[in-house]
Amino acid sequence: MPGPDKVFKETLMAQKRLKPYIHNTPVFTSESINKLIGKQVYFKCDNLQRTGSFKLRGACNAVLKLKESSPNVQGVVTRSSGNHGMGVAYAAQKCGLQSKVVIRQGTAKVKGDALQVYGAEVIYCNPTPADSIAAVQRVQQETGYTMISSFENDDVLFGQGTVGLEFFDQVSDLDAVFIPLCGGSLTASVAAVAKYRSPNTKVYAVEPEGKGLEKCMREGNTSSWPSPPNYITTIAEAIQLQYVAKQNFPLLCELVEKEVFAVTDSELVEAMMLVFQRLKLVVEPSGAAGLAAVMSSRMKEVCGDDVQKVGIILSGGNVDLDNLPWGQRQ
C-alpha cells in the first residue's frame, strides 16, 4: 500500500501525464456565501472538469498507464455510479480502446446517456454491489478486458490527487478543506498532497449520514461494515457505498481529521441549491457535500473560530435536470 511520500511523487508524475487530457479547473468565490457562513470559502470547481467530475483524473491516469504497460490491450471494463465510468470511457476513447461500463438500474439518465456519448457499451445491473461485481466478472471472462476499479487501483488514487496539486497552487494557506468521500481515493490523495504542499491545512472527509466512517477511523478498522458493502439510502448516489478501499484507509487514518462530517439529504439539497443560486453552477448532490458540511451545525463544534479560510471541492455536476431534488421536497 502506498504511503504519503509515494502518493505525492506519483501524483506529480500523473499531473504531467494528464495535462493534455484534463482541465486545470477554476476556483470560484462568492461574497454572499462568505457572509452567510462567516468564513472565506473557496470552491474548487471540478464539476467543470471534462466528463463533469473529478473522476476523470484517476480514470484517465489508470487507462493511460495501462496503455503504456500493455500496448496490445483491447479494452477496459468498470463498474460505476456513472462518473468514474464516464472517465474510463473518455480515456479509452482517447487511447483507441473499447470500453464497457456496468451501472445499476436507477442511475441518473444523464449519466447513462453520457457514457454512450463517450463510446462505452452500457450494461445495467440490479442495484446491489454484488450484482455489479458479478456483471464485471462476466464481461472479463467473455472479452478479456481489463478492469479499471474506481477504488482498488493505485493509479486512480494518484490521478485524483492532481485536484490537490492545483487547488493548493491556486489558493495558499487554506485552514481546512472539505472533501466528499466514497471509496476514499480523492480524500486520501488530496490529504497526501496537503502534507507536502499545504501542511497546515486540515483535511476533513464528508459522507452521507449512515456511512459511519468516523467510528471506523477511531477504531482503526472497517470490521463493522458489511461485506460485500451496502448502498446507503441517500440522494448522493456517487458517494452512497458503505466502503473505503484497502489502500486508502491507512492514508485516511494517518492524514485526515478523525472528525468526519455526516450530512443529511436535506443538508445536501440546501447546499446544492445555494451553489445553483449564488455560484450559478450545476452541481450534483455529492458535489455539494463539502458545502453542506461547512453549513452544518457541527462546523462550529469541530472547527470553532480557528478555521476561517475554507476550501471545498465541488466534485461533480452530472445531475438529472429533469429531477432536481428540491422539486421533490414536501
UniProtKB/TrEMBL annotation:
One of its GO terms (biological process) is D-serine biosynthetic process. It holds the Pfam family PALP. Its EC number is 4.3.1.17. It comes from the Eukaryota. One of its GO terms (molecular function) is serine racemase activity. SUPFAM superfamilies: Tryptophan synthase beta subunit-like PLP-dependent enzymes. It catalyses: L-serine = pyruvate + NH4(+). Keywords: Lyase, Magnesium, Pyridoxal phosphate. The keyword Lyase applies. The keyword rRNA-binding does not apply. InterPro entries: Ser/Thr_deHydtase_PyrdxlP-BS (IPR000634), TrpB-like_PALP (IPR001926), TrpB-like_PALP_sf (IPR036052). Residues 20-316 form the Tryptophan synthase beta chain-like PALP domain. Its cofactor is Mn(2+); pyridoxal 5'-phosphate; Mg(2+); Ca(2+). CDD domains: Thr-dehyd. Belongs to the serine/threonine dehydratase family. This is L-serine ammonia-lyase. The lineage of its organism: Eukaryota, Metazoa, Spiralia, Lophotrochozoa, Annelida.
